[in-house]
Amino acid sequence: MGLLSEGSPLSWEETKKWANHVKTNGIEQFINLYKRLKDRQGDSLKWGDEVEYLIVKFDHENKRATVSLRANEMLPILREPENQDPASAKSLWRPEYGAYMVEGTPGCPYGALPVHLNIVEANMKLRRKEAQMLLPPNEMVLSVANFPRLGCPGFTFPEYNPDTSEKGVSMSRFFPDEAIFPGHPRFATLTRNIRSRRGSKIDIQIPVFVDKNTPRPFVEAGVPEQKEDMIYLDAMGFGMGCCCLQVTFQASSIAEALKLYDNLTPLCPIMLALTAATPFYRGYISDVDCRWNIIAASVDCRRPEERSVIRKSRYDSVDTYLSEENSEYNDIPLIYEEPHYQSLITEGGIDKSLAKHIAHLFIRDPVSLFSEKINQDNKKDSDHFENIQSTNWQTMRFKPPPPESSIGWRVEFRPCEVQLTDFENAAVVCFVVLLTRVVLTYNLHFMIPISKVDENMKNAQKRNAIATEKFWFRNDLQNKTASYSLMTVNEIINGKEGFPGLITLIQNYLNSMDVDADTQCTLQQYLCLISRRAKGDVMTAAKWMREFVTSHPKYSQDSVITEEINYDLLQRIATLSENHSSTLLGNIDPNRSKTQDNVPEILTR
Amino acid sequence: MDTACGQSIILSSGNILTKSIAWKNGSDAANEEVYESLKSCFDGPSKIIQTGDVYEVFGDDIKNVNGDSERQDLKISLKIFLYSPEKGDLASSIEKGLRLTSSETLDTLVVTFSGHMEGIPISLDIVKSAWLILEDMVRNGKVKVIGLSDVDTQLFIQLHDWAQIKPGIIQINLASCCVVPPELADFCKKEGIQLLTHSDPINALSQEKINMLIEALASHDTFKSESSSVHWDLKWVVRYQVHLKSRGVVATKGLIDGFGQRIKINYFATSNFGMGIVKWSYMCLQAARNISWSNT
Known about the structure:
- The complex is a heterodimer.
- In chain A, the strands form five sheets. In chain A, strands 1, 2, 3, 4, 5, 6, 9, 14 and 15 form a nine-stranded mixed beta sheet that branches. Chain A has a two-stranded antiparallel sheet with strand order 7-8.
- In chain A, α2 packs across α13 and α14 (422-442) packs across α19 (517-535).
- Helix content of chain A is 36%, strand content 13%.
- Chain A has helices at 12-17, 19-37, 71-78, 80-84, 120-132, 185-198, 237-240, 254-264, 268-274, 292-298, 338-347, 352-361, 383-390, 422-442, 450-460, 465-468, 489-494, 502-511, 517-535, 541-550, 563-574, 582-585, and strands spanning 47-59, 64-68, 91-95, 101-106, 139-142, 156-157, 204-207, 230-233, 245-250, 280-281, 284-285, 315-316, 393-394, 396-399, 410-413, 470-474, 484-488, 515-516.
- Chain A is globular, with a radius of gyration of 23 Å.
- Chain A is built from 22 helices and 18 strands.
- The mean pLDDT of chain A is 94.
- In chain B, the strands form two sheets. Chain B has a nine-stranded mixed beta sheet. A three-stranded mixed beta sheet of chain B has the order 1-3-2.
- In chain B, 27% of the residues lie in helices and 26% in strands.
- In chain B, β2 (47-51) and β3 form a beta hairpin.
- The relative contact order of chain B is 0.23.
- Chain B starts with 7 loop residues before the first strand and ends in a 10-residue tail after the last strand.
- By secondary structure, chain B is α/β, with parallel strands linked by helices.
- The chains are: A alpha+beta, B alpha/beta.
- Chain A binds chain B through residues 42, 44-45, 111-114, 252, 255-256, 259, 437, 440-443, 478, 500, 504-505, 507-509, 511-518, 520-521, 524, 592, 594, 600, 602-603, 605, and chain B through 17-18, 20, 22-25, 30, 77, 108, 145, 168, 172, 174, 177-178, 180, 185, 189, 192-199, 241, 243, 245-250, 253, 272, 274-277, 279.
- Chain A: Pathway: Sulfur metabolism; glutathione biosynthesis; glutathione from L-cysteine and L-glutamate: step 1/2.
- Chain A: One of its GO terms (biological process) is glutathione biosynthetic process.
- Chain A: InterPro entries: GCS, Gln_synth/guanido_kin_cat_dom.
- Chain A: One of its GO terms (cellular component) is glutamate-cysteine ligase complex.
- Chain A: Its EC number is 6.3.2.2.
């Protein structure tokens, strides 16, 4: 969601002029925050998930499905409860990039006890229901990572034509500006400014999945920018219009936050491979299973001459561990401006690794700025810091406490792809939360060199990576011996000779906690799903969707997802919660999970 | 049967949390965990303190069990695997647990009737007899919530009806967590009883493991000479856990075994307080040495 200051966005030309102002003041704002809050202790473990949804419209007569640009209409209604009484709202709603997207989070963060894990799924179901209630009969809220025919002609309802002219925000051949959420200027502003800064349209090339009848070379008529055998995408909407699943944790101190951040970082590629759910782009089957690189390219504001120096887009995996004690693993060059770094070290008294991380975030220019927010009181406001922080989209995000709030130091885990059902989303989220508890209980060390994490990120996105790829992973989680080796996702999750596997660690942890029967039942279902997915007994969402399409009677083995195939696929997804798929969940019956919407009082004593 | 006072050996081992024995899964692992933990305290360098008939053997990494945390931030729980029907044994297991947790109170105390005539359901009278001790503990302010583990639904309901201080917890085995007897689930909901799961075997130590442990002990320098006339009965095993309340983190897990030989072997675990998360395992074996009146 990012920073949603209200107000009047500046043009790119104006924004450029204020770049140094924003950066300098942003650094100072972080320094002030840090000094004020670095000794803060004792915040309890609270955490929350964020799920993004698409609104899809079905035309049953013509067997077509489109994205419904209804978000702006829905959001004010969805937000009524939180506007009237935030304390009692069961869920909170936010806009996202697409005019066809909404994002929901739990009304109250979840707590520290195992029993809190048992309300996640019920809360997610509630959110889905809340949104669904506002829709006409032929429209559905779906948690699909990418609308398969996003960018195909007529993919929106209402239908709009893309504006390739200079007046257009995206200037895309395929993505109309009306598909960008209109209710807040941030999204259009970012789109225009990122494009302006880079000096050209977004340029995303994704390898097409070559099937028996796929034309070779694969070339799209009328699309000169397309490279051979690539699916070409040319707008921010193709990336930011995808849905993801995020988890944010509050830590008890800054040291604990850094520890969690560092330990979760090497888990990002593994979770990405496990949750892979994005095999389709603009009506074609691609050769990748994940959205990550696509989004990275969709907001890449680097000018051509910058690309050899600044190695990554402002959306990409993290470049450094944050704790001093893990600096030995920071083996890729980190770009930052020396004056920023020096301020952080000397004025802020901040440790080198954290200072480098912050300074590195600040190499990016602000790409949206509101006139009302230019002049700030750096002791009280933090909008300039948030401006840069929120437009660095990384696999992890380290979040200082907001000024004047009771919220503590937080860590956001951002790589997961949204899953097709609430059961799966809850399973993924609970799995990640349990991993954090395991890290802290057993004082584990997951760190491997950042360059290896980057390598893992590349491999995690390949088609069927969960089964075919190996990932660098630390051999000995308990000790300081930093050796690592290549392991399959199965080995990492389920263990092997000499390596316990993440599930065993979690089971051990659960054995030492007071877990009530209902929660235990639910968690065992979730762990079973993760375990089987890692083993390959059940499919990832990406694989399941590929199978559906490639075995569809109307599929011509040419990598094309027709309107009818798209319609059938989305219809099937829409009925997954009542009509489970055995290839997606195996014989796990998601209705056996004992999730419930509230925490029984006796279990909180 | 008079278990004449013999020597007591208390074994205190290290922190289970950070030892690799914590890495295994299932109920075999639990057995292993108890056995390995106990054995480890006299396997390596250890400190033995003798007070009269009591020998306390400490593994080499004893630290203050509760570290820097405030008592109110901690939840201290004890689970007793009771092998002996004698009230004195149950009472002493609780006292030991309290002493070793360096705390004056326990938040929860749960009893399971282990090794108790396998296959024969436990009688209500035995449970009631143990329950009276537990009630005293609550009245004395030493324990806040008392409960039982692995008792069948009917017995539990009968106990609940009879008890003056009602059970606040019932534990069932993890394997049956998805098929909780509806009667039990309803009863707990109605009466406000926590229905928790565990993955412990009923017997914290199998007979085989008990024998192995005794053999190992018997070959230890300090206790060698005693071995020939020793007859060991396991009295109780106690596991102690400390949780940091607001963090969902296990702080301490300890196991204490009581062998019928009145040899108390406390397995005492310490842990790393770096992040305030510690798990302690205590094993206290209270073994009663059955010394025949005619010998030493």
